[in-house]
Design a protein that fits this description.
Length: about 270
């Protein structure tokens, strides 16, 4: 680490700050991860180019940081930066002062079709929801996440931070063709389920065996989760079964991340029992 900290005018910081824009991330093939959880996971499982730390950020990670970077073995360059430089790099009101410049993390669609449980958020618009959904998928043991349709970039700053490092733990893909994604899921042997307020069956029913047949959730499952504002719309018609989450209180609906957490957790629970 050099003696003079990088400022907001240092070319490296200026170029890194441009990665707030999706077009710049796509052109450079790089993105920023912010926060100790995200940076730690990026260093362990991702492809990090270099790390930027404020004095406060360096104090926060302390001796642990030397262990995580393994600078002698991996050659990850660490740069001290000013608070103003951190403000330029952050999309948060209160920057953490801990950043990693990472190479492109997303995988091709075919590489994301792994495991017996796949989460497919469709036309997700909110970065925080995108990141949180990746985190939920990771926590419930899903094999991958595929963002389908016109979606927010899961490598954007807010999405990466909301994933709390999970973006680096499992394959995440992004594909604009929703029908193409569903067709490929069918080809690979997945039963495609869609969340719906007026589903064909309830999640409770899908979790138990019927007439001697295995529970629906015990199969190889891909879940479609709809847009925050208008749900899945006509895309739910391409699913094999539409499933509703029983509402036992007075609430009329659940937000995207909560619905996904319930469906993925219940599917994983049934699979473990099977």
């Amino acid at each position: 680490m050099g003696d003079e900290p990088f400022t907001e005018r240092t070319p490296r910081i200026v170029n890194a700050a441009k990665l707030h824009r999706a077009a710049a991330r796509k052109k450079a093939g790089r993105f920023l991860a912010e926060g100790s959880n995200a940076v730690s996971s990026a260093l362990r499982y991702g492809d990090v180019v270099e790390v930027y730390l404020t004095e406060r950020g360096l104090d926060a990670v302390g001796a642990e940081f030397d262990t995580l970077t393994g600078t002698d073995d991996r050659g990850v360059r660490v740069h001290l930066i000013t608070d103003r430089a951190a403000a330029a790099l952050s999309e948060s009101v209160t920057p953490t002062g801990i950043f990693a410049l990472c190479r492109h993390q997303l995988v091709d669609l075919s590489e994301a079709l792994v495991g017996d449980l796949v989460a497919v958020p469709v036309e997700t618009a909110e970065p925080g929801n995108a990141g949180a959904l990746v985190r939920v998928a990771d926590a419930t043991g899903a094999g991958s996440v595929i963002f389908a349709g016109s979606t927010v970039d899961p490598q954007g700053g807010k999405a990466v931070r909301a994933s709390a490092g999970s973006l680096f733990h499992l394959p995440v893909a992004r594909h604009t063709g929703v029908a193409e994604v569903i067709d490929l899921l069918h080809e690979r042997g997945y039963t495609v389920l869609a969340t719906s307020g007026d589903g064909d069956i309830s999640l409770d029913t899908a979790a138990v065996s019927q007439d001697g047949e295995p529970a629906l959730l015990g199969q190889r499952i891909a879940w479609l989760f709809g847009n925050e504002a208008h749900g899945l719309g006509d895309w739910q018609d391409l699913a094999d079964v539409r499933v509703s989450i029983p509402m036992r209180g007075a609430a009329e609906s659940l937000n995207l991340v909560t619905a996904a957490a319930i469906c993925l957790y219940e599917t994983a629970r049934v699979a473990r029992g099977a």
